[in-house]
Amino acid sequence: MNKIERSPLPSTVAQQPADTSSPLLRFLDELHRNYAGETGGALADYIPELSKANPDHFGISLVSIDGHTYEVGDTQVPFTIQSISKAFVFALALDLVGPEVVEGKIGVEPSGEAFNAIRLNAQNRPFNAMVNAGAIACSGIIHEAKGEEAFETIRQAMSRFAGRDLDVDEAVFQSERATGDRNRAIGYLLKSSSVIGTDVSAVLDVYFRQCSILVNAHDIAVMGATLGNRGVNPITGEQVVAPYAVARALSVMTSSGMYDYAGEWIYRVGLPAKSGVGGGIVATFPSQFGLGTFSPLLDSHGNSTRGIKVCETLSDHFNLHMLNRTSNIQSCLFADYDLSKSSSRRSRRPDEAEILAERSDKVRVLELFGALAFTEVDYVTRKLAEGPAPHFMIVDFRRTSGITGAATKLMMDAFKTLSGRGVTVIVTAVDRKAAAFAEFRAAMKDSTFVRSFPLLDEAIEWSEDQIVYRYGGAVDFSQTVPLGEQALLKELTPEELSLVSALGETRNFDNGAHIIAAGETSDSLYFLLRGLVSVKLPTGVRLATLTSGMVFGELALLEPRRSADVFADTPIVCHVIPLAALHQFCGGNPKIETKIMLNLSRLLSARLIRANKKVDLLSAN
Ligand code: GLU
């Protein structure tokens, strides 16, 4: 669920420290209090309607890429998006008609000129899409593609970026249209240079309208977070534009998003951003958050004075400059082990267990963690190449949040090499819908050398079965194992065995039968003669799968209540001995009781040793 944390600070007035809960909200609240009193700057007035803004309005909103919102002050006050629209319409144009067309018409170099300069570059193209010439060219591209639907296409795209339906401020639109001769001049210059191929006044109307779209600080924070989330709106989950379009829009925001302050901004704040003369600033920390500020007083560059202060202080205090990063790539390897450390939850008969124990290094498991990008996966590929080649290499993705295209390429290449060395490569938990796995899923589809299992445990069990087969063991579920081979009844003489056997009866259960239910009174022991059962926790987690020759329900000897469920995975045959009969019998046969209890201790001790190894494996990382 997406949450909104709102500071109780009353709008426009600096007050007592607000009673807020999270550290980030407290910090934003403090910024708001510190800068609300700053009254430097002036309202934009070259579009007459903008001069009617309330200079006291001041809002800050931050939206994380997991969709959590922090807001302080006037975050719900609407204002016109103005030049902030340029970044999003540029992303939309790239998404809509592709980079060749867009890049053929608009450059990506900083202009070093005023945003509304009536000038093109040496190739008669706008310098970039963040200055008016480039933005009008962008609106032209969309007009060419969509005709009369151009503005509606833009409005709907912006609405998807914001996660709500956005409207237009008609008064601001009319005001700019009536006074926008400079932009008109740019429009005709673009037409004469063949950058605009359609009706200039229609294109300018699209441009003026897109600048007059009403947003609030929260909207632009969500829009910024959508850019920071590779185009997926973190609140609605919608992929608004393709990731490459986002990356290119963010690039131009980085070099040219803040008017003539762009160089200074990226040097100091270090985040791609875009501001508008309506008083908004949107900043994005890729893969982390979007920030939206609103305060209509502008400095000499046309940037919101309070907004700039908020961004500079926030970045400085938390060291958020995007070029000042490091990460521990090795933490992407959560665990690296073979069967000697952790096997599947299938209980093995002694002969199988022996085969597997001797070849525990033939199955190797790498459990990965977190977001897998280029360098993380490079590290994983180095690990995959280490040591003698196993028969089975299992790579588990259940704790990962995604894998990039670059990382996918490295990973697939490493898998191919392993497969060429005779290793069976298996991946687990990759069939997830998340867009963050899209490239990996596509690569998997094309690959013939990687097997995929939904669950890690299943993959380990399958690999164990292959080892057992390969080394002469037989995994035969239809085989019947006599009572005398039960570990719990080991060392009983044939006479003792037949006495114990006579206490119970042989019973059949259908496939799927719920043989033991958690919480019930423990009243019998089940010796599995044929078939397969699974022991599961009430949560559905599989604890063990048992085959013929094994006992279940044996904790009845110690515990009055069942702690787990047992289901038949095939039709099964059991010898069922009622607990009451066994107790009564043992009363008169203490030597047999001692043997059984000693056998039980051995079974439990083996289980404990396995569990301890797992604990060790999990806590080592
Ligand atoms: N619509 C405004 C113009 O073209 C946008 C200016 C801006 O926000 O930079 O003049």
Question: What would CATH call the class of the largest domain?
Answer: Alpha Beta
CA(first)-CA(last) distance: 30 Å
Q: In total, how many domains does the architecture comprise?
A: 3
In spatial order, strands of the major sheet run: 1-3-2-8-7-6
Q: How much helicity do the residues have?
A: 40-55%
Short summary of the structure?
With 621 residues, the chain is of the alpha+beta class. It is 41% helix and 18% strand.
Word description of this protein:
By secondary structure, the protein is an alpha+beta fold. The protein folds into three domains: 4-318, DD-peptidase/beta-lactamase superfamily (Beta-lactamase, 3-Layer(aba) Sandwich), CATH 3.40.710.10; 329-470, 2-Layer Sandwich (Transcription Regulator spoIIAA), CATH 3.30.750; 483-618, Jelly Rolls (Sandwich). Helix content is 41%, strand content 18%. It is built from 20 helices and 21 strands. The protein has a six-stranded mixed beta sheet, sandwiched between helices. The chain has a five-stranded mixed beta sheet with strand order 9-10-11-12-13, sandwiched between helices. It has a four-stranded antiparallel beta sheet with strand order 14-21-16-19. A hairpin with a 4-residue loop joins strand 6 (273-275) and strand 7 (280-285). The longest helix is centred in the C-terminal third of the chain and has 30 residues, at 590-619. The two termini are 30 Å apart. The relative contact order is 0.08. The model is unreliable at 10-18 (pLDDT under 50). Glutamic acid (GLU) binds at residues 82-83, 115-116, 132, 176, 183, 211, 276-277, 302. Glutamic acid is lined by residues 82-83, 115-116, 132, 176, 183, 211, 276-277, 302.
